[in-house]
């Protein structure tokens, strides 16, 4: 949960600003984000549009030098404490991949309201809430980069989000395996530690192998990203694999904790709940598979 809040700030809400924002915009919004004086959210998803990002309805109508923004954003991480929302909105009519812009909306702008934190299955140390925009007036100079490029910028920004999600999952998964090794080394059944059963050893060894393979993919994709390569396929693969593997690791490990694994206060139980988001947030497994299929040239 804590890493989610930080990751939103560093790798989900600010990469487009860093890459495409004007110097003026970066000084005003990125500098305080880097110094830790301001909290950012990324506001893309809406009640009726999560996977289908191009289907968002929130819009900004030009009025003089401003946009008048109306709409709502759903499931927004950090939103109850955010100073700024990096927000994807429709800024014109027309083709839905070319009519969007990323606009920074300060949370204290009149007409912005944030609902109470949502009750979630996991990630309880990360706040998530719905935001409403009611005739919110924001200067057009708060737009990141060119008008109409918002969808493209957000797709690029998603690449860093997905690499972060995959990278951030690695240590947690290894921690789950380590804590399970320690528990099963102490806990005995039928006169010997649970860990002394080969089936347990082999399962943990296999999961550790999968983590190492994911780490290699993440490192490869991140290296390409740092060198300016298009890592769409590898970032999507890493996100897909990490979401699935995190669920597999937490579920398999929990099994070896027996009844303790079903108790709320046990760490592995928290990992089981928290890891579930990995296959949904930031683009579901199916969305990742769609991107990979498209890159392979096999999408219908
Ligand atoms: C805790 C939490 C934090 C979040 N934080 C943020 C945030 O900070 N900012 C933000 O913008 N959003 C955030 N989200 C939203 C998140 O990105 C979306 O929930 C996610 O993209 C899925 O969208 P949806 O919930 O609308 O699911 P839907 O689009 O309704 O899809 C539901 C399910 O249908 C399946 N599906 C969808 N499309 C297809 C398809 N084409 N083929 C096959 N199956 C498909 C998938 O399994 C998917 O999970 C957060 C969500 C949660 C739960």
UniProtKB/TrEMBL annotation:
Pfam families the UniProt entry points to: Acyl-CoA_dh_1 (PF00441), Acyl-CoA_dh_M (PF02770)
Signal peptide (UniProt feature, chain positions): none
Domain Acyl-CoA oxidase/dehydrogenase middle, first and last residues per copy: 42-136
GO terms (BP aspect): fatty acid beta-oxidation using acyl-CoA dehydrogenase
Requisite cofactors: FAD
Entry keywords, A to Z: FAD, Flavoprotein, Oxidoreductase
Assigned GO CC terms: cytoplasm
SUPFAM superfamilies: Acyl-CoA dehydrogenase C-terminal domain-like, Acyl-CoA dehydrogenase NM domain-like
Gene Ontology MF annotations: acyl-CoA dehydrogenase activity; flavin adenine dinucleotide binding
KW Protein transport (keyword) present: no
Record domain Acyl-CoA dehydrogenase/oxidase C-terminal: where: 148-296
Family indicated by similarity: Belongs to the acyl-CoA dehydrogenase family.
UniProt protein name: Acyl-CoA dehydrogenase
Species: marine metagenome
């Amino acid at each position: 949960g804590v890493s989610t809040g930080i990751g939103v700030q560093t790798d989900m809400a600010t990469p487009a600003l860093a890459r495409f924002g004007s110097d003026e915009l970066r000084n005003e919004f990125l500098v305080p984000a880097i110094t830790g004086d301001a909290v950012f959210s990324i506001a893309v998803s809406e009640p009726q549009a999560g996977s289908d990002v191009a289907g968002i309805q929130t819009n900004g109508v030009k009025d003089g030098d401003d946009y008048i923004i109306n709409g709502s954003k759903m499931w927004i991480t950090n939103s109850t404490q955010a100073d700024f929302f990096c927000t994807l909105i429709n800024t014109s009519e027309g083709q839905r991949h070319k009519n969007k812009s990323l606009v920074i909306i300060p949370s204290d702008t009149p007409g912005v309201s944030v609902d109470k934190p949502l009750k979630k299955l996991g990630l309880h140390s990360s706040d998530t809430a719905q935001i409403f925009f009611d005739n919110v007036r924001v200067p057009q100079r708060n737009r990141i980069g060119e008008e109409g490029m918002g969808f493209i910028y957000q797709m690029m920004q998603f690449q860093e989000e997905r690499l972060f999600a995959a990278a951030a999952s690695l240590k947690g998964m290894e921690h789950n395996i380590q804590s399970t090794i320690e528990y099963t080394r102490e806990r005995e059944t039928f006169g010997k530690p649970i860990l002394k059963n080969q089936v347990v050893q082999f399962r943990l060894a296999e999961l550790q192998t999968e983590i190492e393979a994911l780490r290699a993919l993440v490192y490869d994709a991140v290296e390409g990203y740092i060198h300016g390569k298009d890592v769409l396929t590898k970032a999507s693969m890493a996100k897909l694999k990490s979401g699935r593997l995190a669920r597999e690791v937490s579920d398999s490990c929990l099994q070896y904790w027996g009844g303790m694994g079903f108790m709320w206060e046990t760490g592995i139980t928290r990992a089981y709940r928290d890891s579930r988001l990995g296959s949904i947030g930031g683009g579901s497994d199916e969305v990742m598979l769609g991107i990979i299929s498209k890159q392979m040239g096999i999408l219908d």
